[in-house]
Amino acid sequence: MTVPAISCNNVTFSYFEEGKDVLKNTALEIPQGRITVLMGSSGCGKSTLAAVLCGLLPDNGGILKSGDILLYGRSVKEIPVSERARSISMMFQNPDLQFCMPTLREELIFCAENISISPDEMDYEAERAASQLGTTHLLDRPLHTLSGGEKQRAVLTCIALLNSKCIVLDESFANLDPASVSELLPVLSDLCHKDGKTILAIDHMSDHWKGIADRYVLIGEGGTILCEAETQEELEAAKPIFTEEGIAYPGIWEKKTLATESSTEGLHFCQLTIPQVPAKKKLFGKATSVKPEYDASLYYEADAHIPDGKITAIMGPSGCGKTSLMMTLLKQRDYFGNIEIREDEIRELRDIKAKDCFKEVGIAFQNPSNQFVTQNVLSEVLDGLKRRYPSEPEEVLKEKGLALLDTCGLRKYHKYSPYMLSQGQQRRLAVLAVIAAGQKLLLLDEPTYGQDYKSARALMDLIAGLVKNEGLTVIMSTHDAGLAGAYADVILHVKDKKFTKEVR
Amino acid sequence: MRRPLYDNFNPAVKAVTIIICCIMMAIGGTWQINCAVIVSCLLCLTLLSRCSIKVMIGLYMPLLFLGGLIFISNLASADLDAASKTAYEIASFDTALLLGTRILSYASMGILFGLTTKNKIFVMSTMHQFHLKPKFAYGILAALHLVPTLSREWDEVNLAYAVRGKRTGVIPFGPLFNTLVNGIRWSENVAMAMESKGFDGDGPRTYSIETPVRTSDIVLAVASLVLMTAFIIIFK
């Protein structure tokens, strides 16, 4: 009988001595040469379990209170780090934070040095790994200029050089567009089914893995195994448990009816051209630039209408300019053509001062921790409320703030620092903080990035309620077609530098 | 014809040589020595390295301005009218010249080192010659390569403050705090990613780049120190 690639028994792990156990008596076996997908809701301990299985925790923090992890039958504690990399290697969620060298070639050489490959063979090994993963063209490009998908492929190239027998993917597709995911999946399938590697993928969506995964494992709070499925029928039968845990499965998002044109009010992009490279800021005076050619533009003479009081989803591959469009609406980038705001009168965005623009437009970034301006959850919403109701007394504002926090379950954390919240909670707080100030247009950059179905639903229900009750206008960028279909009134696809409106 | 003698100079030996020269210059302390050092550094940069002249000029321009300002502000206290010239006023002129050229001479040594040394080779050299642990050496390299990400996040944090109508002040403590929190989180992620790729801070490893100390490095170091001693003897 073959030993499992990974096996753990009775594993209890906590980040602090007196803290809550993130993993409690977890027992799991990952068989060799198969793709196992590990699913679970946000905060149930999936990423912690992955790091513990790879031996990265407790080496980098936390306490392993009980249990042991065996890699191919050997205790992970007994395997030196460099030797461990040949058994197991991990690909993380954020592609920006996985490299310590400027180019893929140098990163591959760094990996080769780590596992003591002879200097004479390093270049050959780097070329071999790159040719295996089809990344030869990326070898000498600066890593920070690569797209998210290319970076994740670069990490797989490093793993190919290390020749790790088992690959752990920690939500590695979270901020990749569907095209990049479709490119990576056959590569992973080949690594497993042709080269015999073992793959353990942590994901909160099973959609990606349909057809290539051999086994699904659903874990609950504390890393408890809730159910396992090997066939499509078993997966179907487990749907009630998925729903209970707040995990998405194919077809969970119901489609909303798209809005039909009824009013011309809202934002109008008329022959909008946005350069790929923004004009450099000048020390004195305004930055000037000339209208770029088609190839040097993100959008070229594009037209679109964003209706007032509706949710508009912008969809398109990574790098197509979704975030840049939001930066343009915040007057952070130059543009050609017109962006008209049609209400009772017609205003051109160019004629509005940035300071006045910020009074009407708010943004929730992909990384919510970038936008906290206070050290306390309640103060985050109070800050906006004070600007919205300058004459109201402090006590009244506090009550309003607590009521607002209550709408998405954050009231009990009102004395916490925003940085102590989970990422899903941070994202909800970031949106509340923007809403509190009473801005009319809300820009959401990948609002459900890295969130499970339950958290995504809670956030989007809150926004949909505000759109319906308070007439808020929302523009959101997303890669999640299910989410866009369920909440957006208008879906605009960015294709060939123009907007195409989805019609159903 | 430019010969890359200083580019090939072992970075660890080069760093030690330049530090000793700086200490000697601090002890010597006359404007003539400072000027001789500036000229020597310029000659080394233009003749014995392949550094970009454009970058070199770009670095020297603000320094010349700063040096000039220090000189003029100190000179303002000196009266150069021959009839009323006193020992104190002559000293003031010398002091202005000394202070103005001092900043340029120290900066010239830094520029000479910076423009003729590659980050990675220097870090490798600190491991090979100063026995710096790989954990720290590669930590420095990883931090350097996080700069583009940090810069992008910094812009985003500042924009968030502006959108929410917050002023950040001359010293932007708020955005600095956000960036610091993110920086700590990133450094943990990068450290785990490095370990996942087999990086063991203290364990055995091979090196693609070796930085041995050659005879030419010793000769260049001794020549630089002899030249510095000569300047002190001649101009003191």
Outline the structure in words:
The complex is a heterodimer of chains A (about 500) and B (about 240). With about 500 residues, chain A is α/β, with parallel strands linked by helices. In chain A, strands 6-7-8-3-9-10 form a 6-stranded mixed beta sheet, with helices on both faces. In chain A, helix 11 packs across helix 12. Chain A starts with 5 loop residues before the first strand and ends with a strand. The relative contact order of chain A is 0.11. The model of chain A has no long low-confidence stretch (mean pLDDT about 90). Chain B has about 240 residues and is mainly α. Chain B has 2 domains: about 130 residues, no CATH class; about 60 residues, no CATH class. Chain B is flat and about 65 Å long. The two termini of chain B are about 35 Å apart. The mean pLDDT of chain B is about 90.
From the structure above, extract its key features.
heterodimer, A: about 500 residues, alpha/beta, six-stranded mixed sheet, 15 helices, 20 strands, about 25% strand, B: about 240 residues, mainly alpha, 9 helices
Count of runs of 4 or more consecutive helical residues of chain B = 9
Helix count, DSSP H or I runs of 4 or more residues of chain A:
15
Structural class of chain A: alpha/beta
- Counting helices, strands and paired strands, the structural category of chain B is mainly alpha
Instruction: Tell me the count of domains of chain B.
Output: 2
Shape of chain A: globular
Q: How does the major sheet of chain A shape up?
A: 6 strands, mixed
Oligomeric status of the shown chains?
A: heterodimer
Topology at a glance:
The complex is a heterodimer of chains A (504) and B (236).
Chain A (H helix, E strand, L loop, with lengths): L5 E9 L6 E10 L4 E5 L6 H8 L9 E9 L2 E2 L5 H7 E4 L12 H11 L4 H15 L14 H15 L3 E5 L7 H16 L4 E5 L12 E5 L5 E5 L2 H6 L1 H7 L20 E10 L21 E11 L3 E5 L6 H8 L6 E7 L3 E3 L5 H7 E4 L12 H12 L5 H13 L16 H14 L4 E5 L7 H18 L2 E5 L3 H7 L2 E6 L2 E4 L3
Parallel strand pairs in A: 3-8, 3-9, 6-7, 7-8, 13-18, 13-19, 16-17, 17-18
Antiparallel strand pairs in A: 1-2, 1-4, 4-5, 9-10, 11-12, 11-14, 14-15, 19-20
Helix pairs in contact in A: 3-4, 3-5, 4-5, 5-6, 11-12, 11-13, 13-14
Chain B lengths: L10 H18 L2 H17 L5 H23 L11 H29 L3 H11 L4 H12 L1 H17 L9 H24 L18 H21 L1
